[in-house]
């Protein structure tokens, strides 16, 4: 999961900086059980005077969610970046029925910090 999130975040950071453009669909699009981040190289149509600012201020607001009752796949993610400050959270329904929510922040001063909250599996009483 962390590797998938890292790939998606890297693709978004590169797109935010103007290094790549996101392809058709959107980063984090889910096919089956794999998240796919599209980040093809930007095409400039032969213009040699096109300037790409590799030092632009990175800023984005990203969200996605999946709710599939057929497979039981339920998850969400939201992240905001403004410069070197990143804040976000993701949640998912785990296979045992428990719910996990992770809230995280990252910046140059404090590094990466995450708080994980788990709730017990929901049990239904039958009468």
UniProtKB/TrEMBL annotation:
<dbReference type="Pfam" id="PF00379">
    <property type="entry name" value="Chitin_bind_4"/>
</dbReference>
<dbReference type="InterPro" id="IPR051217">
    <property type="entry name" value="Insect_Cuticle_Struc_Prot"/>
</dbReference>
<dbReference type="InterPro" id="IPR031311">
    <property type="entry name" value="CHIT_BIND_RR_consensus"/>
</dbReference>
<feature type="signal peptide">
    <location>
        <begin position="1"/>
        <end position="17"/>
    </location>
</feature>
<dbReference type="GO" id="GO:0005615">
    <property type="term" value="C:extracellular space"/>
</dbReference>
<keyword id="KW-0193">Cuticle</keyword>
<keyword id="KW-0732">Signal</keyword>
<protein>
    <recommendedName>
        <fullName>Cuticle protein</fullName>
    </recommendedName>
</protein>
<dbReference type="GO" id="GO:0042302">
    <property type="term" value="F:structural constituent of cuticle"/>
</dbReference>
<dbReference type="InterPro" id="IPR000618">
    <property type="entry name" value="Insect_cuticle"/>
</dbReference>
<dbReference type="GO" id="GO:0031012">
    <property type="term" value="C:extracellular matrix"/>
</dbReference>
């Amino acid at each position: 999961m962390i590797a998938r999130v890292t790939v998606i975040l890297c693709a978004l950071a590169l797109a935010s900086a103007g290094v790549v453009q996101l392809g058709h669909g959107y980063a984090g699009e889910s096919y089956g059980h794999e998240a796919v981040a599209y980040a093809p190289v930007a095409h400039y149509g032969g213009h040699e005077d096109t300037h790409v600012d590799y030092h632009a201020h990175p800023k984005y607001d990203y969200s996605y969610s999946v709710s599939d009752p057929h497979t039981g796949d339920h998850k969400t993610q939201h992240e905001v970046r403004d410069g070197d400050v990143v804040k976000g959270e993701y949640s998912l329904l785990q296979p045992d029925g428990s719910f996990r929510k992770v809230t995280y922040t990252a910046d140059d001063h404090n590094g990466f910090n995450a708080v994980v909250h788990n709730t017990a599996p929901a049990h239904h009483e039958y009468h």
